[in-house]
Every structure is written in structure tokens, then in C-alpha cells.
Amino acid sequence: MRGLNFLLFAGTALWGSVSGLALTFEAHHDGLNVNRRLDCYRTPDCQDLRAKQCRPGYTYVGWAKDSCHEQKPNSGRPICCNDDTVERFGVDANGKPRECIWRGTGPNCNGAGEEGEVVLFKSGNGGGPTESDQSQCSTGYKYFTCPLPGWDQMMAECRWTE
Asked: Which of 99, 134, 126, 125 shows the shortest CA–CA distance to 114?
């Protein structure tokens, strides 16, 4: 999303300089960023995963293995998202809340987000929840993806034109 904001800003700045209009990033940032920010983080330190601790106002959505399991069993780096962000993930066709997941299978990892997902983190080890296995990547990466808020609405408004 950051890259998209930059491209939108760069295009707006170019248009503004060509047309003689001066636009400032701060004044127009909210108008350029149609999708509200995903507020998620991965804890910097290894923790006991049974506790699933996040800062107040944040929900546990997964964990990164990194080198934590070498230090202590049942440990990892929790991944947490703001409660509002998790709510905006929406529900699937069965009414179940959409969840984040690690994509990619070792040892030759080729993880990538699927349609309607956004990549938050990458890792050679992955974590949980996972679509396949816990094996480490010898090449490539596993990617932690979450549902892109507003995807269904955006797709419902898209159509082919002539």
C-alpha cells in the first residue's frame, strides 16, 4: 500500500507541476489513500505462544517462528492487528471471520498472497496458522497474508466495459 500511495502521490505531484497547481502531500494524503491503513505488528522478541499476548486494542492473528523454536519450544513472535483492522477483514461466504495465514511450502518456498489478500511479513521459517507445513525454506520465502479490507466491495463495483 505504501508503494501505491507513493505512485499516486508522484502522479498527483507531476500533474500539479504540469498544470501549475501546487499540491502538498499532507493536505491531500487522506484523499489519495482510499483504503484505510492496516495496523498490524510482529513482536520483536520471542514469547510463549500459549499466552498470545498483544498490546491493548490489538488481536492475535498468528505467529512467526523465526529462530524462536531453537531457543525454547512453544515460542514464537506473535503477530497482532488492531481490533478495527481485524473487524475490517470481514467474513467468508459461510459467515466465518476471515483470518490471516502463512502461504508457501518448504523446502522450495514460493509463497504469495492470493486474490484479495495483502502480504504483511515474509520469513524463511513461516509460523502459524499455515496452509501446509512448518518446514524451513531452503529457497524463497513464506508470506504472512491477511484479508484485504474492502476487497469484496471493491470487486462488486468493478465491471468490464467496452
From this structure: 99
Total tally of structural domains belonging to the chain:
2
In one letter, which amino acid is 152? D
How many helices (DSSP H) and strands (DSSP E) are in the chain? Answer: 5, 8
pLDDT in tens, 70-99: 778 788 999 999 999 999 888 888 989 999
- Which residue has 500539479 as its cell numbers? 16
Grid cell for residue 31: 484523499
With CA atoms as reference, report the closest residue to 125 among 69, 45, 50.
Answer: 69
Main-chain dihedrals φ then ψ at residue 42, nearest 5 degrees: -115, 125
Residue-number span of the structural domain to which 24 is assigned? 2-32
Predicted confidence (pLDDT) per residue in 105-144, tens digit:
878 888 788 888 989 988 888 888 776 667 788 888 889 9
pTM: 0.70
Assess whether 83 and 24 both reside in one domain: no
